[in-house]
Amino acid sequence: MNRFLLRNVANEAKLLLIGIPVFIWTILPIYHLVLFAISSKDSAFSGNLWPTHPTLDNFITVFGQKHYFLIHFWRQLWNSVFIAAMTGALTLIVATTSAFAISRLKVKGGRMVMNLALFTYFIPAAFLAVPMYRTMGLYGLLNSQWALILAMMTIASPYAIWVLKQASDKLPAELDEAAVIDGASPMQLFRLVYIPLMAPSLVAIGAYAILLAWNEYLYAFLLLSRDTSIPLPVALGNFLAADDSPWPLLMTTGLIYAIPPAAIYYVFRKYMVSGLTAGATKG
Amino acid sequence: MSTATIAQPPASMDAPVRKRGLSQWQLWGIILVIPYLLVFVLFVIYPVFYAFWLAHSPESYVKLYNDPIFARAVVNTLIFIFVAINLKMAVALALSGFFLHDRVWIRWLSVIFILPWAVPSIPTILSVRFMLNPEWGIINQTWFKLTFEDGPNWLNDPRLGLFFAMLVHIWKSLPFWTLILLSGRLAISNDLYEAASVDGSNGLQKFRYITWPSISQLYLTCALLSAIWTLGDFNSVYLLTGGGPADLTHVLATLGIRYLRLAEVDLSMATIVCALPIILPIVYVLMKRLSK
Questions:
Q1: Cα gap A92→A89, rounded to integer Å
Q2: At what angle do helices A110-122 and B22-40 cross, to 10 degrees?
Q3: For A57-110, how does the pLDDT look when each residue is reduced to its tens digit (9 = 90+)?
Q4: Domains of chain A and CATH, by start
Q5: Distance from B115 to chain A by nearest Cα, in Å?
Q6: What is the dihedral of CA A138, A142, A144, A149, to 10 degrees?
Q7: Residue B126 to residues A30, B130, B240: CA-CA distances in angstroms?
Q8: Quick check: A13 and B100 in contact, CB under 8 A?
Q9: Helices in chain A by DSSP H: which ranges?
Q10: In chain B, where are the structural domains located?
Q11: How far apart are CA B146 and CA B227, in angstroms?
């Protein structure tokens, strides 16, 4: 009995020995971010490991746009929201219609479209950035937020189509047959049967596209340059241009910018994880 | 159009039901894939061909070959991919075993553990960047308090700079791969482990004969997918070191952007073309594994 207990304690200790470093490793950069957000500049720069005089002054400065780098804070926050929402909506439209046509209507050449999408998914976005930048220039879309929205939709839709097609393959074939017998047109089937049944996957994909667009930095800073049209991440990057960056303000803005996607992620975690792993665990 | 479709022999067994509506279904199918095909042609095919056209001159490649920064970036990219992927996947494999343990605190830890993946990378990378600041960063300040000596200028050493870029990359992507491998492990039947326990096998043997054979294919797919995403990781290097010091920590993903900013678009495109020999074989294998 005693030996059994001892082994149990040793086991728990071993788990803690892994768990504690994992916790520190995970939380350190985020803790540092929060620490800076609630510290004054002097306190942040003196290397305190915990907040000696926690203050919300940084948030007041950011929300009041009271710093040179933050003059357009609300505007840029809105830009981020707008770009993410539009990307989410457009990706959903494009991906849902394609997945429906390929999986349920069995359109000819659907397999090829799937492979094209999958191939696009495998091209690293960073390598498509420069060609995309030049092409947007040719289309006359540079400095328009639509350039970024269309680019993000292009990057988000292949994975979206792939996941939605797999989810929709699992719906029973009798659905289509019953709909045909009842004399439903394809669009009625799409609207009245398909969309409601696919709702959980659609939520996951919508959240995926929104997060992708919200988090994007490279495309945003290539395609947009006016202070009033850039989203928040580019504004954060611009802080670095100054030698004497107001780091606590930068971290505060960064924290505000990081909270919505984290919240979305945790709210939709169940959907996201199942959607993502369904894609990746195959093979 | 409709006559051609009707003339086709019925393809599936539910043909009697569908026959009448077949052409209508095909027509709607075509209409509904058109939006994606348009996106694909306008924003994938056209840019890619345009890029190849811009990078068609052999002179660009000669210029690129003679640029020492390019050679350095290729070496950095190879090191980055090799070290980051193997380290990340090995740790993810080990941690997925850790998160299998059913404890309340481990469940809470797994919720926190996802944070790096859930938050955008810009604020956290910048946070790490300031932690490594030689004068004001928290690391060197603590170093000074403990040793009364100045700490190293971390990001001013190209090797350390690249090392930290890899760490940041691993920090960000580790949760995702751990989660995937965890779901792979959870799919293994518990009966196998119980049978092994009855036969008196230890943990290592269970891993060797049950866990690994069950998830090795998944592990390989993950490693390949991760290779592509690592190759395209622009943020970790660009936001941490900016390619510096003296452009010694560039990888191919950031080098393309550097040339673009120097208004040398042909070199930028040539850089991307030079990455293709690494990308295309991986994409080929992944396509074979994932498209059924």
A1: 5
A2: 20
A3: 889 888 988 888 888 999 999 999 999 999 999 999 999 999 999 988 888 888
A4: 2-61 (no CATH), 72-280 (1.10.3720.10)
A5: 7
A6: 80
A7: 10, 6, 7
A8: no
A9: 2-37, 41-45, 57-63, 73-103, 110-122, 125-138, 145-169, 174-181, 186-188, 195-215, 218-223, 232-239, 247-267, 269-280
A10: 1-54, 58-290
A11: 39
- Region B139-152: mean pLDDT is 83
B112 has a chain A CB within 8 A of its CB? yes
Overall CATH class of domain B58-290: mainly alpha
Inter-chain CB proximity A19 and B46 less than 8 Å: no
Q: Model-level pTM?
A: 0.88
Q: What angle do CA A189, A192, A198 make, to 5 degrees?
A: 90
- Chain B residues lying within 8 Å of A107, measured CB to CB: 26, 29-30, 32-33
Taking each helix axis as running N to C, give the angle between helix A269-280 and helix A195-215, from 0 to 180 degrees, rounded to the nearest 10. 90
ipTM: 0.89
What pLDDT, on the 0 to 100 scale, is given for residue A281?
A: 45
B118–A154: do the CB atoms touch at under 8 Å?
A: no
Chain B residues within an 8 Å CB radius of A18 = 95, 98
Give CA–CA dist A67/A69, Å, rounded: 5
Q: Do A43 and A34 form a contact (C-beta atoms < 8 A)?
A: no
